[in-house]
């Protein structure tokens, strides 16, 4: 990437503190159950836990054996059992069964449940119902935030998305508020908080409520601004195919908790290799934000440089050689290893993505975004479904069609759904019902063109006397209004102009210059305007719930370091994609900001849609 | 030491003597302490005066304490005998004495010694005053000693309010207003505690009024439940945004109310309803069904049955569930879902029959997968039947058959199929599928049948550059010519490249 933009970007705060805090608390909790014990860990907590405390650390605190929670009868012979779990009813029920089984067998053991990041009343209710409340001790491990990289922090709560936006279950709001409070107490005070979305507002309020319990801030702030955004404000962006390297790797190999497992087709051996993907990896760090078309050029340049560095050996005398081996060789070898892995990965991506199918898929996506040749797109989607090419991709295209066109024509809606069911089975009736509820795949209301819709929404907004505004909205809320939004915010760059992907001129580069991600554009606009003034039209179409609050209103303005004002924490509620992170990094370079992304989980089109499937009991 | 104050000739001598012995600091300290043990205000003053006299550095401090009853005499007398005596001791003592003197007043009548006071702490003293209902004095002392509001003023105010709510002669309205006026700006007031008190005194209405002032809705909930205002408790819990609290109320309601009322209550509270639904999904499937029934939510009921159907292993049970789903979808006026579900039942029966006849595992497959399996094992007749019965779109069927035949490399059958009637998907797919299975020979058979628009693509797919060039030049399509050019290598296809370039320039001229 051309190192354009401002050079005086501030330094990011050090987030390793979060890890240390989490580790210390975990150790403290483990020591609350003295003596040897077996530890059962929820499957999806294993990778995050590994980042905080490895097996050696756990063993040092008298953990004997480690098991994955599998909801099956256990084989442990230990006298003390410790369960480290997410607060889920199923898991707690399973633990109750374990305890009850022991009781029936006359076996005495001590049990401890550590809920993370917090326990829920419903879990305790289950323990009570199953008659084991007195047999177990419960604790909370306030492990809210896992730093995945210098600028990415994850709550590792993928279920947040489905539970909050589909099931209407707001139990994770408190956890998100707690996460914000933790960041605030360590890196705050924030001087300004912006947000959009109903959940964002609730998280903000939850955080405020938690802070009011008497915390006075006197330290120098490290993070000045905060932006909270709901995933349902922008569904289009995560549903588009990713073409930036890090996003592509995630789409194809699935990055898990900041690391990826490259299979034999990448490593060109018979083994799989796990690689951490973060800024520590020098090769990766330089290509992660690049459009894929540049990656190969970069990698081959890098390979040549590496060769030159190796070649220095020739003509060295013994002394020089010794110095070379002890100082440089290790670094070069490491770089060599990483380079060959990334070249392998790129080749694998090339094989999959430069095929004609993928090119046509991209073309369709771009046409949909532009609203151009929509009929052709519909037939493309139809063929895609008919040929059973990919369950998720077909669904993705259907959703994109619905979102960009404000719903499908009634005829298309029925026929495409019917064909999809023929391809993938009737279970997807439930999937469609979920998608409809989310507003992702809906039928156009007959007789309601876009303009009618807009004026209707407008009337509702202007009619301030209508007390139950939100209720009235909910029927209209599911409209995406994408066309109008894209016009107002100029999300689609003029077609026909050459777009040099090597020297990007705006955030659209992450989608080959076809589309500026709505979520990131909103963030840019709000930071530029220092609030929502002038964006009333936009927020109205996004179903409102926007806010901007000044935090440090106690006359300390002058004391606040100017640097912290340019550090912006963006919290995505419901997940964000690597492409969005790349776009924000680009925006940061252009405007002299540094963005820190906090997300409930890293997502992509696959994960997002899989969360909404209902095809298994 | 006290003599110092008496301005006598001797004082100076004494002073010098003490100073020489290095005991001046000790002397001052003793004086300050002595003042503490003195009951008489006058003597206290005398003793304390020693300090400013010897220590001008704290002269200003002493002045600021002028407002205290312990007035300080002219500091002009003072000479700097001792400059580094820590002022805190003196200041604290002055403050303590002021408080002590206040409570020793005959109207209050708590004759505490300084030692007793130190022993029992300010907190306890305040408590004692509160028990004697000496609220104003307690508040004054708190403010004077700068006790943090939470422990000081607010606590006293809370006690006052708790006492106030017991005054039976005043109306609920008046009491609530007085309390809110007085407590309005104080930090850390728990209205819910006051309300609890009111409730304990049997004033439920007042309690509810007071709860209105509680800013944290979460705090209101337990009391509301206790007062059996469960509906209100539920809305307050939801307002608090704390799902645990909502859940507490929901479980409480579940045990308190009969099922019908309980469901009705939930119905008006979407947040609580979805929370309870989540719980039921894991714990009580049947309750979930009842919930939907209560709401006449036929759509959800239909979904519920569909979900239940694929937990069943037996075909009859599965079909029965689906039938219930159809009924519900019909009630929900969701024709689409009803129709598809009916088709699914038909498909299941068909699969079962075939499974028994042919021994192919089919039950549970989608229509598409069923067709593919049938074609793959060569049950073409059955596939045809399915295709007709279920009105499978032609395009899908052609694609399916094409891929199935190519996979089996049954080229003869494929050719027959291609000729059976006009292909609804065109013939380019035939070319491409053959190429995919590495059979260029077969692929070439179909090139001629491809539409003119796709001809170039077809020729290129089979690697026929000349053919592609002919087609493109015939169509005078610049874009296509360029595509072919990009595939040519300048060394081997020189003649072709020249021809194409010529055609390109004429096409461009047009």
TrEMBL record, chain A:
GO terms for biological process: protein transport; vesicle-mediated transport. Its main location: membrane. It is found in: Late endosome membrane; Lysosome membrane. The lineage of its organism: Eukaryota, Metazoa, Chordata, Craniata, Vertebrata. This is VPS33B late endosome and lysosome associated. Keywords: Protein transport, Transport. It is a peripheral membrane protein. InterPro entries: Sec-1-like_dom1, Sec-1-like_dom3a, Sec1-like, Sec1-like_dom2, Sec1-like_sf, VPS33_dom3b.
TrEMBL record, chain B:
This is Vacuolar protein sorting-associated protein 16 homolog. It is a peripheral membrane protein. Core component of at least two putative endosomal tethering complexes, the homotypic fusion and vacuole protein sorting (HOPS) complex and the class C core vacuole/endosome tethering (CORVET) complex. Their common core is composed of the class C Vps proteins VPS11, VPS16, VPS18 and VPS33A, which in HOPS further associates with VPS39 and VPS41 and in CORVET with VPS8 and TGFBRAP1. Interacts with RAB5C. Interacts with STX17, MON1B. Associates with adapter protein complex 3 (AP-3) and clathrin:AP-3 complexes. Pfam families: Vps16_C, Vps16_N. Belongs to the VPS16 family. The keyword Lyase does not apply. It comes from Astyanax mexicanus. Its main location: membrane. It is found in: Lysosome membrane. One of its GO terms (cellular component) is endosome membrane. One of its GO terms (molecular function) is actin binding. InterPro entries: VPS16 (IPR016534), Vps16_C (IPR006925), Vps16_C_sf (IPR038132), Vps16_N (IPR006926). Residues 312-342 form a coiled coil. Residues 6-57 form the Vps16 N-terminal domain. One of its GO terms (biological process) is endosomal transport.
């Amino acid at each position: 990437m051309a190192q354009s933009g401002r050079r005086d970007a501030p330094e990011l705060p050090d987030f390793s503190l979060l890890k240390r805090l989490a580790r210390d608390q975990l150790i403290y909790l483990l020591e609350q159950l003295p003596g040897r014990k077996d530890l059962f860990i929820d499957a999806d907590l294993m990778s995050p836990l590994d980042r905080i405390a490895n097996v050696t650390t756990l063993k040092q605190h008298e953990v004997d054996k480690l098991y994955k929670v599998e909801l099956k009868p256990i084989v442990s012979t230990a006298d003390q059992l410790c369960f480290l779990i997410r607060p889920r009813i199923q898991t707690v029920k399973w633990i109750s069964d374990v305890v009850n089984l022991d009781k029936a067998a006359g076996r005495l053991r001590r049990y401890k449940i550590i809920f993370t990041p917090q326990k829920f009343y419903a879990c305790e209710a289950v323990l009570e119902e199953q008659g084991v409340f007195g047999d177990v001790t419960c604790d909370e491990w306030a492990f809210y935030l896992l730093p995945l990289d210098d600028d990415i922090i994850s709550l590792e709560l993928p279920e947040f998305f489905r539970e909050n936006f589909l099931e209407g279950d707001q139990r994770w709001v408190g956890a998100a508020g707690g996460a914000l409070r933790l960041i605030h107490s360590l890196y705050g005070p924030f001087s300004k908080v912006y947000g959009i979305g109903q959940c964002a507002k609730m998280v903000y309020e939850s955080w405020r409520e938690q802070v009011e319990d008497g915390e006075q801030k006197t330290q120098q702030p490290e993070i000045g601004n905060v932006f909270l955004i709901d995933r349902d404000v922008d569904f289009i962006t995560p549903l588009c195919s990713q073409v930036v390297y890090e996003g592509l790797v995630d789409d194809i190999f699935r990055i898990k908790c900041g690391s990826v497992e490259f299979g034999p087709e990448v490593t060109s051996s018979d083994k799989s290799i796990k690689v951490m993907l973060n800024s520590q990896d020098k090769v990766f760090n330089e290509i992660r934000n690049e459009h894929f078309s540049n990656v190969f050029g970069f990698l081959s340049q890098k390979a040549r440089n590496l060769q030159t560095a190796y070649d220095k050996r020739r003509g060295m005398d013994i002394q020089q050689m010794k110095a070379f081996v002890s100082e440089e060789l290790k670094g070069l070898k490491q770089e060599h290893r990483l380079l060959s892995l990334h070249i392998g990965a790129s080749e694998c991506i090339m094989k999959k993505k430069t095929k004609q199918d993928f090119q046509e898929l991209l073309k369709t996506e771009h046409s949909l975004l532009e609203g151009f040749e929509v009929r052709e797109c519909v037939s493309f989607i139809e063929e895609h479904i008919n040929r059973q090419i990919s369950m998720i991709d077909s669904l993705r295209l259907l959703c994109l069609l619905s979102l960009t066109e404000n719903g499908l024509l009634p005829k298309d809606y029925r026929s495409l759904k019917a064909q999809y069911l023929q391809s993938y089975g009737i279970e997807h009736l439930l999937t469609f019902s979920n998608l409809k509820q989310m507003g992702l795949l809906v039928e156009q209301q007959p007789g309601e063109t876009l303009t009618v819709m807009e004026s209707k929404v407008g009337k509702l907004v202007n009619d301030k006397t209508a007390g139950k505004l939100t209720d009235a909205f909910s029927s209209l809320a599911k409209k995406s209004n994408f066309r109008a939004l894209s016009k107002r915010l100029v999300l689609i760059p003029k077609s026909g102009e050459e777009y040099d992907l090597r020297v990007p001129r705006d955030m659209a580069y992450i989608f080959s210059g076809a589309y500026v991600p709505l979520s990131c554009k909103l963030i840019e606009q709000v930071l530029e305007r220092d609030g929502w003034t002038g964006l009333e039209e936009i927020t109205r179409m996004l179903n409102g719930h926007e806010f901007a609050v000044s935090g440090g209103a106690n006359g300390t303005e002058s004391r606040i370091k100017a640097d912290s004002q340019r550090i912006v924490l963006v919290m995505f509620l419901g997940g964000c994609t690597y492409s969005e992170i790349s776009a924000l990094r680009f925006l940061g370079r252009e405007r002299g900001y540094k963005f820190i992304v906090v997300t409930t989980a890293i997502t992509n089109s696959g994960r997002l849609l899989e969360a909404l499937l209902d095809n298994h009991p | 030491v006290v003599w110092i104050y008496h301005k006598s000739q001797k004082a100076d001598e004494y002073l010098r003597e003490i100073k020489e012995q290095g005991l001046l600091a000790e002397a001052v300290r003793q004086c300050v302490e002595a003042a503490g043990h003195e009951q008489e205000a006058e003597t206290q003053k005398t003793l304390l005066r020693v300090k400013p006299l010897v220590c001008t550095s704290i002269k200003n401090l002493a002045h600021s304490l002028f407002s205290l009853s312990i007035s300080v005499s002219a500091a002009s007398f003072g000479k700097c005998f001792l400059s580094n005596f820590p002022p805190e001791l003196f200041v604290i003592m002055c403050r303590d004495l002021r408080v002590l003197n206040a409570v020793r007043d005959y109207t209050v009548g708590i004759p505490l010694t300084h030692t007793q006071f130190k022993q029992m702490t300010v907190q306890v003293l305040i408590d004692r005053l509160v028990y004697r209902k000496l609220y104003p004095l307690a508040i004054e002392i708190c403010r004077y000693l700068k006790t943090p509001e939470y422990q000081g003023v607010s606590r006293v105010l809370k006690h006052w309010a708790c006492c106030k709510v017991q005054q039976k002669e005043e109306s609920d309205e008046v009491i609530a207003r007085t309390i809110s006026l007085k407590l309005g700006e104080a930090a850390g007031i728990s209205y819910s505690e006051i309300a609890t008190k009111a409730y304990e005194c049997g004033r439920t209405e007042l309690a509810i009024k007071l709860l209105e002032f509680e800013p944290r809705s979460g705090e209101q909930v337990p009391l509301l439940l206790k007062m059996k205002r469960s509906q209100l408790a539920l809305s307050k819990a939801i307002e608090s945004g704390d799902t645990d609290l909502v859940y507490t109320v929901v479980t409480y309601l579940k045990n308190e109310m009969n099922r019908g009322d309980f469901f009705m209550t939930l119905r008006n509270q979407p947040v609580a309803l979805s929370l309870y639904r989540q719980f039921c999904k894991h714990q009580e499937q049947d309750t979930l069904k009842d919930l939907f029934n209560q709401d006449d939510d036929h759509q959800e009921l239909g979904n519920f049955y569909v979900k239940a159907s694929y937990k069943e292993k037996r075909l009859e049970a599965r079909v029965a569930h689906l039938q219930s789903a159809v009924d519900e979808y019909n009630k929900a006026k969701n024709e689409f879902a009803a129709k598809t579900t009916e088709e699914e039942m038909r498909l299941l029966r068909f699969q079962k029959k075939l499974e028994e006849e042919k021994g192919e595992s089919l039950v549970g497959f989608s229509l598409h997968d069923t067709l593919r399996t049938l074609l793959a094992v060569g049950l073409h007749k059955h596939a045809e039947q399915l295709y007709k019965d279920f009105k499978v779109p032609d395009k899908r069927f052609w694609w399916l058959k094409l891929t199935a035949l190519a996979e089996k490399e049954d080229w003869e059958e494929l050719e027959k199929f291609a000729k059976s009637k006009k292909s609804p998907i065109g013939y380019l797919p035939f070319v491409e599928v053959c190429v995919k299975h590495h059979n260029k020979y077969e692929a070439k058979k179909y090139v001629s049948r491809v539409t003119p628009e796709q001809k170039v693509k077809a020729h290129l797919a089979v690697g026929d550059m000349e053919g592609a060039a002919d087609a493109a030049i015939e169509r005078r399509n610049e874009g296509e010519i360029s595509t072919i050019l990009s595939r040519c290598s300048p060394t081997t296809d020189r003649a072709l490249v020249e021809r194409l370039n010529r055609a390109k320039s004429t096409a461009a001229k047009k």
